[in-house]
Amino acid sequence: MNITDHPVVASLTPVFILIALGYLAGRLKWIRESAVKDLSNLVFLLLIPALLFRTMSTVHVEALDLRPLLAYFLAALLLLGGSIFWRGFDRKSVVMALGGVFSNLVMIGITVVQLAYGKPALVTLLTIVSVHAIILLTVTTVVLEMAVASENRANGMEAPHLLTTTWMAFKSALIHPIPLPIVTGLLFAQTGWSLPMVVDKPLMLLGSAFGPIALVLVGVTMATTQLRGHLQSALWITASKNLLLPLMVGISAWAFGITGLPLTVMVVAAAMPMGANVFMFAQRYEVAQELTTASMVMSTGLALFTLTLVMLVMSWIN
User: Fold this and answer.
1) How far apart (Å, rounded) are the C-alpha atoms in residues 43 and 41?
2) In angstroms, how far is CA 67 from the centroid of its own chain?
3) At what angle do helices 197-223 and 289-317 cross, to 10 degrees?
4) Record's PANTHER family (predicted)?
5) 94 is in which domain, residue-wise?
6) pLDDT score of 184
7) When comparing pLDDT for 118 and 65, which is higher?
8) Which of 277, 278, 273, 302 is nearest to 292 (CA)?
9) How many other CB atoms are found less than 10 A from the CB of residue 47?
10) What global pTM score does this model have?
11) Best CA proximity match to 214, nearest among 52, 5, 6, 8
12) CATH number (domain holding residue 288)
């Protein structure tokens, strides 16, 4: 078989070509920084919800296997806790630990999984996506608020109530353009109805536009980021995100008896580069912002090699 015909290479090549084209467009200022926010809103508020709702609108709850959720988040939370313990308990440590476990499952993951493994694989992936932000971002918010409270007490300041902060974090993660269309799509599927053609066709067209635009935006973001001064720390975060998390998820899935396509999707999802939500946390808590951005760029750039490696290994195992 010609190397270019290998399923892994054939599915990943378009992904990285689109990211490279976005990088070129960013460097040449074809897409200016001021336009990136508007394009991001287009992707997150219109294209992604259309794709997620349409995909989940035919999935019946009784057919879902929830073991991948348990296995994936057991591994992710163990790595999150271990990373915080290793670096020490403060805001910077927590944000860096989140960078090592929070995957870009939407802007890159959905496109890669669909190209490589087809629509059936999206069911497993979107099951993880539906609670990915809710679990990881809520837990991280709680831990960050505990770190802030500890700093405030050390400085003689009053900290906000932890339960209030936790509830606000959970609510903002749930009422979000990612989990909301997944949940509503699942609820619609349980009615037994089918989407009328006049609704299904526009949703299909919007969903098909998501992948290319999202990947180009990833490249544009990379073009405006400098790695200088953060290489060593960014490399540690990238190693955790791109290699250690998929290894731990694979071991966890094996312990739960998960095999075949669900196992592959879980491990590949864990091997996706770092997601942009980590930078939002760095901004919100005013810590490690440049390091977080540099880590996201390095994680995405090196994913060309690490993600290819992980997908090849999974093709040999399965």
Assistant:
1) 5
2) 19
3) 120
4) AUXIN EFFLUX CARRIER FAMILY PROTEIN, TRANSPORTER AUXIN EFFLUX CARRIER EC FAMILY
5) 3-317
6) 86
7) 118
8) 278
9) 21
10) 0.78
11) 52
12) 1.20.1530.20
